[in-house]
Amino acid sequence: MNKELHQVVNKFKEDISSLLEQEVIDVIIYGSAVRGGFNPFDSDIDFIVFVDRKLSSKDISKLLKYHLMLRGKLTLDKLLEGRYMAIEDGNVINGYYVGTNSKGWKEITSLGFGHIESAMILDSYTSLNNHNIINEIITYNWDSVIKEIYIQINGFLNNRMLGVNDNYTKYAIVTAARSYYTFTKKLFISKQGALNWMKEIQSMNGLDNPREYILRIKYKMLPIHHCLSKRDIVDMFNFMSANLDFVIKNDLYVKLRRKELNSQFLKDKELLLYIKDNDEIICALSMKHKDDKEITLSMLATNKKDQKYGLAKRILIEAERLCVNKGYKRISLGARASSANFYVKMNYKPMLMVQVFGKINIDDILRVNKEQKNYEVINIIDNIHNKSVFLEIETVDEMDIKIFQDNLKHPDVQYVFTKEL
After folding, report:
1. Quick one: which H or E segment has residue 91?
2. Spatial distance between the Cα atoms of 215 and 282, rounded to a whole number of angstroms
3. What is the pTM of this model?
4. Measuring CA to CA, which residue among 237, 269, 228, 280 is closest to residue 255?
5. Which of 88, 139, 190, 253 suits 172 as a labelling partner, its CA being 20 to 30 A distant?
6. What's the pLDDT band for 251 if we cut at 50, 70, 90?
7. DSSP letters of 171-189?
8. How big is the CA angle at 13 (ends 2 and 18), to the nearest 5 degrees?
9. How many Å apart are CA 105 and CA 98, to the nearest integer?
């Protein structure tokens, strides 16, 4: 708090003590005046005054006249905004609110703070009387803070004024940025500090596309869940069936994938992950235990309309973390061309797998490879159930897939990736 603000709040404390006949328990100053980022052109000086008796109509009349007088001044005093709260036996018995607009001044029966604002106040405030009453009156818990943040973010996205009304849009952008900082660090930050932090991690100006900006914040905060019941498995499989980068049509394939999910559920359900928004799955990942050192990423899918917000990256990073904790040394997976670059960016090493069926055999694959690409052969599987060749490649190129598809009869050509953990 700078020198000028100190002078203002100390004078305020003296005035209020006199007006309320020396029965003020404490004067609390919070917000940007204490936290930093105070701007006399768009900030307030937030306060809470705790009083040791019920506020009478005479008290309220004095407070009204006093604040009307302050509003007419040209000094920082006019920015004082807050609550007078009467306390008896540790409980609020009545109070009065004074805002920036006198039309909103009113009698109140509680502080009216949610968990977010309560946590923010207790994180950074100044007690002018050095009393501990604020910690007796204001409480919060982090689960409720996070719940309020989700409600708040959805409220911004569903409000028609977002992107239409400049004042509301700026308020929504700043508040969303501050809430995401709190969600990430369990700390609080000034308005400008939050915007600067968001620029560093997101490289995006909220005013350019406010809805996109807040959506990105929202998707970074949605929790990752684990399958806890067979019902979760059914919901997860139904979602993946509709959102994988290929359509599940083969009945045998469907049975196999369902069996994989149920087997993994029995083995370790913590590695069946999903993200929900408004009670609907929008991203899901399933792992399949192979042996004590290696595990397979079986399926990873994101709702098509939500694919540009980093959900797949978040859920894969979480799956990798869990795999490391469980002692796995390697993750392997198969991927179509449409998702190959994603795994390259996630530092997975690619191979090309060419599988043939019926009368087509391994020699046909090797011939096409030698004539067209001459990639090094890493592995060959040749039995009654599987005829596949694995080829070493440096980068992913869809033309590789097309070459084998054009020169072999109905091959299954896809990328196989591995990552050492």
Report:
1. strand 91-98
2. 14
3. 0.79
4. 237
5. 139
6. low
7. HHHHHHHHHHHHHHHS---
8. 155
9. 5
